[in-house]
Design goal:
heterodimer; A: 344 residues; alpha/beta; Rossmann fold; 12 helices; 10% strand; B: 348 residues; seven-stranded mixed sheet; five-stranded mixed sheet
Chain lengths: 344, 348
């Protein structure tokens, strides 16, 4: 079972969640919970193992933000495309990636999803529609619009979701891309994970209005701001946006507010370095997307304690298997250095 | 082969055309249009995008009326968002399309360098070959009529430093068609830089689709006394220079390198081993340009063949000026190449 020390009920959120929850099947809610927990336990293992220094690449963890990836991706089919950024483990797992090729990539192994050439910032899973993650802020956004354009030109039914942060909202690439998607009514879901920080700079130091979702108005497209730590809100926003995309209704901008528990990069927390206040983290830990939803599942009887233990156990075995696989896998042969610079 | 000949003057082209039946003449611009049209016909995954490509003029005629033939879904005008649109074509390529992106001026391309350098060039390698980027980008060098510093640049050099990119600069209508067709069906990002002043040049071009291999240069004129390696418009200047030098009994070999990356340095080295003298004529600036690269490769692999210091013919170290008086002083051509060849010959 995934547990948090303090989990005070937040009345209004609880009511809303209950109302929303009654609409969704138990199976879906268990799926969403499992998806979030899978991301959390995978990344907590990275936190535990990182000091060994066997994972020789920067890791950007999304602990605390799992509900967004889980809620949005639950609305995507295998054929649908996803683009993501340097903080992309969660999106990849939520879209269906196996843990082994991911973990092996972080260990720089030949069995990694990118054959050891990408590292944690550059993961790919073509069979599940993840066409690559960019570590240039905003860089994946136009590419996502491009895959949606390709779907349209090729007459495919796929839609595309792109995940980016509040920092990427400041990049020209966002506006250029959103305008084009709106102009051509392309099937794209723009998901801005607003965790309020670009590395250590607060959103208020970077943006005057701090109304990311409102920007969609300029493109005559729908923009919604949701509680990104509420997986059912993320699911619902994703469902609406996916339906719109599939029905030729064009793009949607979803701003999902959330909080990154760990530092911009690495397994440590920012208050240890004096970058962000500890109280702020503690407030957000109380709003843990997984703890909140777990409480709801227990209260509504969708899951009992035994079921939670079973789910946690299964995921932990998957994580352990992935670590074993990664550690035992060979490094790429040095001859791989000059392969795949160009495609045949 | 009539296809490989550079016609430095129209009269010569017309003479050959009259002598050899069945040869078809096209301008450089028509050759580009034909390659694009044939690629659109050959593969439904091909699409074309660029600012103003569906204008009545059609990017100096190179995309003229294609939107009428193939529809606005496959030949589309673009918002003025160079980096975004480039990223959109990169994403489309990764998802299975074969985009052709057209920049009316090379100068607009720097706006899209993030997507070209950080994304298009990296996506195949960075993901261990799981994805590929069959993207072609056309960009046109403007020159003259006071085009000045932001509408005339020849920026190929900065693209040559990026593994994962291919860069071609055709000098003839035959190559314009064949290299563009090859680029569109190449599974890598290819940037084709064209020179506006070549657009009216005539050459013989087969009607059927064909590819010119990317990465192969060509000897345009045989000679024993000096090797002139040239690109784009400078190939024509080099041919004119060689013809004039010939009157003085100097036979220059002219190589049209046409593919700058990958670079066919073997062809250059083979020639320099014969001539012992090397001149590189570039449309761009000197520092870290194609001349620097070609000369370095010869120095690395065939230093002993050089009988005189190599010479670069390139733009002076300044942005392009507008005034015709300054513009005339700025650009390099036949006479500069002749002077460079004579300079190498002065040393023995």
């Amino acid at each position: 079972m995934y547990t948090l020390n303090a989990m005070p009920a937040i009345k209004t959120q609880k009511k809303a969640a209950e109302k929303e929850a009654s609409v969704y099947s138990s199976a879906l809610q268990i799926q969403l919970y499992t998806a979030m927990l899978r991301i959390r336990l995978f990344e907590e293992k990275i936190v535990a193992l990182y000091p060994e220094q066997e994972m020789k690449c920067p890791v950007h963890l999304c602990i605390g933000q799992e509900a967004i990836a889980a809620g949005i991706c639950a609305n995507l089919e295998k054929r649908d495309y996803v683009f993501s950024n340097h903080r992309g483990h969660g999106h990849s797992l939520a879209k269906g990636a196996g843990m082994k090729p991911l973990m092996a990539e972080f260990y720089g192994k030949a069995t990694g999803c990118s054959k050891g050439k990408g590292g944690s910032m550059h993961i790919v899973d073509v069979p599940n529609g993840l066409l690559g993650t960019s570590a240039i802020v905003g860089g994946g956004i136009p590419m996502a619009v491009g895959s949606a354009l390709a779907s349209k030109i090729r007459g495919e039914q796929s839609i595309t979701a792109v995940f980016f942060g509040d920092g990427a909202f400041e990049e020209g690439a966002f506006y250029e891309s959103f305008n084009f998607a709106a102009l051509k009514r392309l099937p794209v879901i723009f998901v801005c994970e607003n965790n309020f920080y670009a590395t250590n700079s607060h959103q208020r130091a970077r943006q005057f209005a701090c109304k990311i979702s409102s920007s969609a108005v300029a493109f005559d497209a729908p923009g919604v701001c949701i509680d990104g730590n509420d997986v059912l809100s993320a699911y619902k926003a994703g469902k609406d946006a996916a339906q719109r995309a599939r029905n030729n209704g064009g793009p949607t901008l979803i701003e999902a507010t959330t909080y990154r528990w760990k530092g911009h990069v690495g397994p440590d927390t920012d208050h240890e370095k004096g970058c962000r206040p500890k109280d702020e983290l503690l407030e957000w830990v109380k709003k843990c997307p997984i703890g909140r939803f777990e409480k709801h599942l227990l209260e509504t009887g969708i899951l009992d304690a035994n079921a939670l233990i079973a789910i946690t156990g299964e995921i932990n075995s998957e994580v352990d298997d992935a670590v074993k696989f990664a550690k035992e896998s060979p490094y790429p042969d040095v001859s791989e250095l000059l392969t795949q610079v160009y495609s045949d | 082969m009539p296809w490989t000949k550079v016609y430095a003057n129209k009269a010569e082209f017309e003479k050959i055309s009259a002598e050899q039946k069945g040869l078809r003449g096209l301008t450089y611009r028509e050759a580009i249009l034909e390659a694009t049209e044939q690629a659109l016909t050959a593969d439904k995954n091909v699409f074309v995008i660029g600012e103003g490509i569906d204008d009545p003029g059609g990017v100096f005629g190179t995309t003229k009326d294609l939107h009428l033939k193939f529809g606005a879904d496959r030949v589309m005008d673009s918002p003025l968002a160079e980096n975004g649109i480039t990223g959109i074509t990169v994403g489309a390529a990764v998802a299975g399309a074969r985009p052709l992106l057209v920049h009316m001026r090379v100068d607009f391309l720097p706006l899209s360098l993030d997507q070209i350098i950080n994304h298009a060039a990296k996506w195949h390698y960075m993901f261990g070959g799981a994805v590929r980027v069959p993207l072609t980008i056309r960009a046109i060098i403007g020159r003259g009529w006071g085009s000045a510093a932001q509408h005339s640049q020849s920026l190929q050099a900065m693209l040559l430093n990026i593994p994962g990119l291919k860069v071609v600069m055709p000098a003839t209508p035959y190559d314009a068609k064949g290299l563009l067709y090859a680029a569109i069906f190449d599974n890598n990002p290819v940037i084709m830089i064209e020179h506006r002043w070549l657009y009216e040049h005539m050459g013989h071009v087969p009607a059927e689709p064909y590819k010119v291999e990317i990465g192969k240069g060509i000897v345009r004129r045989q000679g024993k006394d000096a090797t002139i390696v040239a690109i784009s418009l400078m190939v024509n200047e080099a041919i004119k220079a060689a013809d004039e030098l010939s009157k003085d009994g100097i036979e220059a070999e002219v190589i049209d390198i046409r593919s700058l990356k990958p670079l066919d340095s073997d062809l250059v080295i083979e020639s320099v081993k014969k001539t012992g003298r090397l001149i590189v004529a570039d449309t761009g600036w000197k520092d870290c340009g194609i001349g620097a690269e070609i000369i370095t490769r010869v120095v690395e692999d065939a230093f002993e063949s050089l009988r005189a210091p190599a010479v670069r013919v390139a733009l002076p170290e300044a942005p392009t000026p507008a005034s015709p008086a300054l513009e005339n002083a700025y650009y390099r051509g036949k006479n500069d190449i002749i002077a460079a060849v004579k300079k190498t010959l002065a040393r023995s």
